Amino acid sequence: MSSPATAELLARRERALGASYRLFYEEPFAPVRGEGVWLYDKDNTPYLDAYNNVASIGHCHPAVVAAIAEQSAQLNTHTRYLHPSIVDYAEDLLSEFPEPLDNMTMTCTGSEANDLALRIARCHSGGTGIIVTRWAYHGVTSALAEVSPSLATGLPTASHVRLVDAPDSYRKTGDFVASVKAALQDMQAQGIKPAALLVDSIFSSDGVFSPANGELAAAAQCVRDAGGLYIADEVQPGFGRTGGQRWGFARDNVIPDLVTLGKPMGNGHPVAAVVGRSALFDQFGRQQRYFNTYGGNPVSCRAAHAVLRVLREEDLQTNARQVGDYLKQGLQELAERHPLIGDIRGEGLFIGVELVTDRHTQTPATACAAAIVNGLRRRQVLISATGPKANVLKIRPPLVFAKEHADLLLERLDQTLNDLG
Amino acid sequence: MSSPATAELLARRERALGASYRLFYEEPFAPVRGEGVWLYDKDNTPYLDAYNNVASIGHCHPAVVAAIAEQSAQLNTHTRYLHPSIVDYAEDLLSEFPEPLDNMTMTCTGSEANDLALRIARCHSGGTGIIVTRWAYHGVTSALAEVSPSLATGLPTASHVRLVDAPDSYRKTGDFVASVKAALQDMQAQGIKPAALLVDSIFSSDGVFSPANGELAAAAQCVRDAGGLYIADEVQPGFGRTGGQRWGFARDNVIPDLVTLGKPMGNGHPVAAVVGRSALFDQFGRQQRYFNTYGGNPVSCRAAHAVLRVLREEDLQTNARQVGDYLKQGLQELAERHPLIGDIRGEGLFIGVELVTDRHTQTPATACAAAIVNGLRRRQVLISATGPKANVLKIRPPLVFAKEHADLLLERLDQTLNDLG
Q1: What residues are paired with B40 via a beta bridge?
Q2: How many residue pairs from chains A and B have C-beta atoms closer than 8 A?
Q3: Which one, of B329, B339, B345, B294, lies nearest residue B409 by Cα?
Q4: Deepest in the core among A156, A291, A310, A318, taking most CB within 10 A?
Q5: C-alpha–C-alpha distance, residues B79 and B83, integer Å
């Protein structure tokens, strides 16, 4: 039950922001403070954050807070003046990518990064056609809404967009590579020149899949053969979250033409980027100017650089792998007692737990997923659900998540599953 | 001449960011510190900033720095949790708008705001047609590049976009309202349903014009009659810059359907918004989800709220009007001695000085404008140039610009004009 103060804030919020400004949970959560994997409400009750991938190195990490505070007091202006912060950061970040990915352009959000990547791909290919997965999400701009079918049901797919099957390792209903080939053939039959295959390397909104059998590499090759680019959307899997590799695409031994970065890049500060081959940026730059007012300003570069350094110094990628494996093992044990759990998948600290009413028919247990998400919230653990039927528990905590936090999550999840009976 | 250290940084920058990442000035400027209207280089030489509208309440204003530092250390997460900062700010900001503009959605950049406004207009109208001025700039996304002809010359105009004449008060070559009417008729003749008229209320990239004779109101009415919306792009003129009014559109006694905000909103922190009638947001929200990861997070709301409070407490809008008028008067005096100055226009602290080789033929003096911009930079004064021929000096300082700063600018401009001979 909401307190009178909460009810009043909710009413004021709806008045000023409108009804479509959604909140999580049946009972909205109102954190006032964050630290590491914890969010605290006004009564100082700690909530275990097993969901927020943006605060990737932990809420309010002192290194990032210090960088932001210091640089904000010193200088914060645009990239048409010369400043070492963007150069230092770009060199350091690019050292994390394989050749020939040697250039980057900075933006403020993952949406701006994906949108710019589409512009570069369209400029390079001279085409308009974009291939994405059937339940993809790539951002909020006009161009990205067209390639984000998960945003709206019932809207027609734009004529230059083709939807393909995600590599669903659970139901095995689709064939990603065959689907991409068919989409390319269909585009060509209809006189649409392909510009890009745009894929989230962890297939988050499709339900969390992490293929490692060369599917991405094979699909990328098909698109390149047709004159388009392979854009790896690393906004969600990037920066070590998947544990075994810095970038999700590396799992599949493929080098993208363009890579887009966002969410965890500044641990909450709005900073994002497109990384790619210099020839692609040069080609685009000869045709069109691109200037992003806040993109790459000294504060965002200092914040992002602090995140990158902490990621290395605290070896959070290894932690993501170790704690992720530990958590998956614990979930497997829960699955032995809870038939609702149909599948456990994902990589590192990006885990999907698919709930089904029947393991044989694999029928999505959508209502149960919502009940568990809300039940965990009442038990002070924060997660969410994803997938076309919203029946996949999405467990995606800050990368400083430790085994003790995994134990707590497992204990509370067990209780919640028991309650569901 | 660049020092060896600067030359090395330039080379590193080009290697990591590519050649299309442009810098201002023949000799790039490398500030290391900012305060009020001043930017300082590494030798602590002060440069008078008469150009940067983002640091609107002054570089590194302590109120904004404190808000950012404090909130970053406390909590910075997304708007699907309940937090008072966005509600407090939204209510306060909306109190600055006339009825019926009663709702807002927060984004991170002016580009995201303009892009969202187009999505809302297209959802509302069921149309795709957009009308913008001939040399407009509205942002960097795919959809906005289509309506930003100033970004690229030689690219064809998209079939659903119509370009109209800016209300050029100097050459009087076009008729804005007649041009909008003709664009609407042309769209309808070609079966394109109008979605929006999108106009920067100070026509910045077109050369800085500030009509106040009802042109905007008349054009808005035409678009509404055709089923479209009038979107006021206040990213540049908004937040008191034009002196006589908080928002540029108010000069023309017209109430837009949607208003987009950006640049000065967070004094450099990436925060932006769309303001509009709740019915429009509701209609859009029923059709499509919109969630912006960093948009409206506590840090950006605290930063933006600090800016709004300082704007009021220091009465910077009045200062913009008074110092703007003073500066324009000083420029008029310069014009008596310098025939290069063909026209002085603008409002408050958004001033355009159009340079012509001949006042009778009004021939644009593009090369002279570049020479003056670079000459002033050598004299430690920062401005830029705008307009289709880049011959309009753009003077757009932080709003804390005082008469003594105007005097300094006028003195250095006089010297630079004298040097030009």
Answers
A1: B33, B46
A2: 305
A3: B329
A4: A310
A5: 7
Residue A376 domain-assigned (yes or no):
yes
A297/A154 same-domain check: yes
List, in sequence order, every residue forming a beta bridge with B200; answer none if it has no partner.
Answer: B233
Instruction: Give me the residues of chain A with pLDDT under 70, please.
Output: 1
pTM: 0.98
**pLDDT beyond 90 at B333:** yes
Residues B239 and B132 in one domain: yes
The CATH number linked to B319 is 3.90.1150.10
DSSP B293: S
- Find the helix packing angle between A278-287 and A110-125, rounded to 10°: 80
Best mutation target among B27, B49, B68 (most A Cβ atoms within 10 Å) is: B68
Q: Do A87 and B24 touch (CB under 8 A)?
A: no
Listed in sequence order, the residues at least 6 apart from B221 whose beta carbon sits closer than 8 Å to its beta carbon are none
Residues A124 and A232 reside in one and the same domain:
yes
CA angle A127, A132, A135 (to 5 degrees): 150
Alpha helices in A266-395 (DSSP H): 278-287, 298-313, 316-337, 366-378
CB burial readout B201-221, b (16+ within 10 A) else e? bbbbbbbbbbbeeebbbbbbe
ipTM of the complex: 0.98
Q: What is the pLDDT of residue B1?
A: 57
Out of A65, A268, A288, closest to residue B77 by CB: A268
Domain hosting residue A188, numbered range? 62-313
Which residues 65-84 in chain A show a CB within 8 A of chain B?
Answer: 65, 68-69, 72-84
By the 10 Å C-beta count (0-12 exposed, 13-18 middle, 19+ buried), B233 is classed as: buried
* Residues A305 and A322 occupy one common structural domain: no
- For residue B367, is it within any domain? yes
Lowest mean pLDDT among A259-273, B153-167, B196-210, B358-372: B153-167
pLDDT-based confidence at residue B199 (cuts at 50, 70, 90): very high
Strands B341-347 and B46-49: unpaired
Q: Among B109, B111, B90, B112, which residue's Cα sits nearest to residue B101?
A: B90
